[in-house]
Specification:
This protein is mainly beta. 0% of the residues lie in helices and 51% in strands. Strands 2-3-16-15-14-13 form a six-stranded antiparallel beta sheet, with no helix packed on it. It has a five-stranded mixed beta sheet with strand order 1-8-7-6-5, with no helix packed on it. Strands 35-34-37-38-39 form a five-stranded antiparallel beta sheet, with no helix packed on it. Strand 32 and strand 33 form a beta hairpin. The protein is globular and about 85 Å long.
């Protein structure tokens, strides 16, 4: 039986943290060279930013669960991640890049009720937690389109788009460990936790699209330890003197634990369908939305914005550089990804009002300028693209005639090659709707209609890279402390740095540390015994063993014991 936690009325503690309103003009957008992009019309638009308010919220408790695994699933074969009692749709997906994958889905319980579920794999989708042990939340009101992004150390954050009955709600979902719902974190001691803010009392409502982008605090570039990243929002502001419908906003957690929302006013376009990402190498935040002109409903396209660079202060968004960006005319349903100074935006564009093709707008200078390329040029129409980065490839998925296709670019978005066969094994079963499919890394999940009710299926786009997994197999006593390290992964481990540290004894007189580096440890190989050698002492001890390698795998063990002159006993 599925485990889920019923959410009743959310309790919200409101604390006004900002009493004044800041209105700062933002620099007009730079213009792209239209001679290089004949199909794209770009117009500069000035906008303003406003800091509104800060609040704090309580959170609901999530119960810990245990899980088992299902039989192995071969790569490249569709796997039904969610087959529930009602329609499942609009999956969210995230990976840590090392084979751990979490997929979310919304289950449509009724016209005004939704369940949100999470299911995970620790081996690149070959095995999944048993469906009877998946973790979920039941909402009394409709919510939809779960989004999730990886942070660091197995931690991710997610969000949801609220339904019409809760249209002013913003959800912040903390996943301390994407493969273990019971793992606590400082923000969520009970494990996976949904946080909630009702922005209605502050004049914000009718949120119609949300996305989340996470940022690793250990980089030293985020404003505070609580800053997981940003939730990007499209919706309305009814603030007196600052009313704006269908505008862009973003929200984040401040150093004191409060929540801040920033919104844009004085815009002459309406926006929806937001997509965002953070380039970790630069501390640069970007987002893109679909837009329509308020004065000319036929003028439509995509609206790209870049933020000031995070500088470690809470008011980084008030930088004088503002929020420059571009309007790309005629590009619909945009989706984006950014890394290492590059930005990729994919979207639909219509030719002769008949056929939709997929285009890519790509930048190699952190969004300062863009060029464009055709991802597809087919007789049939394609729709609802998503984009991801997989090692040296940019990947773009899209739906054509009920099938999910993927194209690859190995040259930074300049040229594209379509994988010949569709990703789904059963032809014509992919639901053609916004947010029907999502990618992260080499993995894709989609809404599938081959059965009734609809399901969420998963597959691998590109064979994922193989990695070593270091495991400290034993820690023994004797004449000193010894240990062995085994590589249980699928690739050789290089430069395996190990250390053994022993402390304790009467009056803390024992302090012995040794270590070295193993040049390489092949798949399945185990090291020779690694030893401290003989040391003298008497009393209780603590032995700490660590192992790391260049590929990023690590393991550690802490054991207690007793030292009797030269003999070591490990508990």
């Amino acid at each position: 039986m599925h485990k889920k936690n019923k959410l009743n009325k959310w309790e919200v503690v409101v604390v006004i943290a900002v009493a004044m309103v800041f209105i700062t003009p933002v620099a007009a957008f730079a213009n792209i060279d239209e001679t290089e992009n004949e199909n794209q019309s770009v117009v500069g638009v000035p906008i303003t930013q406003t800091c509104i308010t800060s609040v704090e919220a309580t959170k609901e408790k999530i119960l810990p669960t245990q899980f088992t695994t299902t039989p192995e699933q071969p790569l490249g074969v569709d796997f039904p991640v969610f087959s529930l009692d009602n329609d499942c749709q609009n999956p969210g997906i995230v990976t840590d890049g090392l084979g751990n994958v979490l997929v979310l889905t919304e289950e449509v319980v009724g016209p005004s009720a939704t369940s949100l579920w999470g299911r995970w794999s620790v081996d690149s989708g070959e095995n999944w937690v048993d469906e009877s042990q998946i973790v979920g939340w039941q909402f009394q009101d409709a919510v939809e389109r779960p989004k999730i992004d990886y942070k660091e150390d197995m931690n991710a954050w997610g969000t949801l788009t609220p339904g019409p009955d809760v249209n002013a709600d913003v959800f912040y979902i903390d996943f301390p460990d994407i493969t273990d719902p019971s793992v606590p974190s400082p923000a969520s001691p009970d494990g996976w936790t949904v946080w909630h803010i009702d922005w209605g009392p502050y004049g914000f409502l009718w949120f119609d699209s949300l996305d989340v982008a996470c940022y690793p605090y250990t980089s030293g570039k985020s404003p505070s330890a609580n800053f997981f990243g940003l939730v990007a929002i499209t919706g309305d502001s009814l603030l007196s003197g600052h009313a704006e419908d269908d505008t862009m906003m973003f929200s984040y957690i401040m150093a004191d634990g409060g929540i801040r929302i920033i919104y844009f006013s004085s815009m002459d376009i309406d926006v929806e369908k937001i997509s965002c990402d953070i380039d970790h190498s630069l501390g640069q935040y970007y987002w893109v939305t679909e837009y329509v002109s308020e004065t000319d409903p036929t003028a439509k396209g995509s609206y790209f914005v870049k933020s000031p660079v995070f500088d470690g202060t809470d008011d980084w968004w008030r930088e004088s550089s503002g929020f420059p960006g571009f309007l790309f005319a005629g590009v619909y349903n945009p989706n984006m990804v950014a890394a290492d100074g590059s930005v990729y935006i994919v979207g639909e564009t219509m030719e002769n009002d008949i056929v939709d093709d997929i285009v890519c707008l790509y930048s190699s200078d952190a969004g300062a300028s863009f060029a464009s390329s055709n991802v597809t040029d087919a007789v049939s129409s394609e729709c609802f693209p998503t984009v991801a980065i997989v090692e040296d490839n940019v990947t773009c998925s899209y739906i054509r005639d009920g099938d999910l296709y993927v194209s690859l670019s190995a040259d930074g978005g300049q040229t594209w090659t379509e994988i010949v066969n569709p990703i789904n094994d059963e032809p014509g079963t992919v639901a053609c709707q916004y947010s029907s499919a999502n990618m992260d890394g080499p993995y894709v999940a989609w809404t599938d209609e081959r059965n009734d009710p609809t399901e969420i299926y998963f597959d691998t786009i590109i064979e994922p890279s193989k990695y070593p997994i270091l495991e400290i197999t034993e820690v023994k006593g004797g004449l000193g402390v010894s240990t062995t390290i085994k590589n249980t992964g699928e690739a050789a481990a290089t430069n395996v740095a190990w250390s053994i540290s022993v402390t304790g004894g009467f009056f803390g007189r024992i302090n012995k540390t040794v270590g070295d580096t193993i040049a390489s440890l092949d798949v399945g190989a185990e090291s020779d015994p690694l030893k401290t050698g003989i040391f003298f002492g008497l009393g209780k001890i603590v032995a700490e063993v660590t192992a790391t390698c260049d590929e990023g795998s690590s393991d550690s063990e802490t054991k207690t014991g007793m030292q009797i002159i030269i003999f070591t006993k490990i508990s």
